[in-house]
Amino acid sequence: MKLFDTHAHIGLIHEDPIEQLIITQEARQQGVEGIISICNNLHDFFVVYENLRTATHVYHAVGVSPSEVQNPGIDWEAKIDSGVKQERVVAIGETGLDYYRKFGNKNSQIELFIRQLEIADKYNLPVIIHNRDAGKDILDILSTRRPTRGGVLHCYSEDWEFAKKAIDLGMYISFAGNATYRNARNLHETAKNIPIEQLVIESESPFMVPAEYRGKRNRPSYLHSTAEYLASLRGLDPEEFAEQTFLNAKRLFQL
């Protein structure tokens, strides 16, 4: 099974650089032939980037998460400009809106999000979007500032009606381990109905562990469990599903 993990916080799984490399190699042995490394802030991006420089199957996104809105860092835009110039940096993110934990205020989050959409267009890169309790504002912003290279709503948590609107705006939908939970009926409906060409998968490590591994910290090597579950929902062979989502990820990130 050939898999692509479109969202993994490798730096949060383990701080040690050697352990981070081991995690990526372990994933590769389990069929995860591509990983997008995600960091919430720019300091961590540069640290993890250096740690994983020799892991050529790991790609990177650079950006500022809404969790950092109150302290995005001095010259944060210039640092994103610098990050984009590094090898295997393929997306801006994660960015977006999070009204659940109330990081800063809504206006400051929206401003940070919009600015990163503009940066993504500047560099012709897709956007990795975080959405928690902010769906209406996310769609409103994307409808007026549609990213040139599109993007992905990661760790999807909305319903099928929302997904249809996002797809119409050029977005991909990414499912994490929470889609394997029995009570996640909205996610099951969406996963069954979404055009397969717009679907990608992620580990969201070390969070959102698949039901099969409940009680453990999530790792990219567990991604097969999410793929197998979603394939069964759609009535597809797991190998066929994995291959299609792998190709979708490569298309999304221009690989």
How many structural domains can be distinguished in the coordinates? 1
Helix content range: 40-55%
Main beta-sheet annotation: 8 strands, parallel
Unreliable parts: none
CATH H-level homologous superfamily name: Metal-dependent hydrolases
Structural class: alpha/beta
- CATH architecture assignment name: Alpha-Beta Barrel
CATH class group: Alpha Beta
Order of strands across the main sheet:
1-2-3-4-5-6-7-8
Give me the strand/helix succession.
EHHEHEHEHEHEHEHEHH
Count of DSSP H/I helices: 10
Pfam families: TatD_DNase
Binding site for a divalent metal cation 2: 130, 154
Protein name: Hydrolase TatD
Binding site for a divalent metal cation 1: 7, 9, 94
Briefly, what is this?
By secondary structure, the chain is of the alpha/beta class.
Structure report:
By secondary structure, the chain is an alpha/beta fold. The protein has one domain: Alpha-Beta Barrel (TIM Barrel), CATH 3.20.20.140. Helix content is 43%, strand content 17%. It contains ten helices and eight strands. Strands 1-2-3-4-5-6-7-8 form an eight-stranded parallel β-sheet. Helix 4 links the parallel strand 3 and strand 4. Helix 9 packs across helix 10. The model has no long low-confidence stretch (mean pLDDT 97).
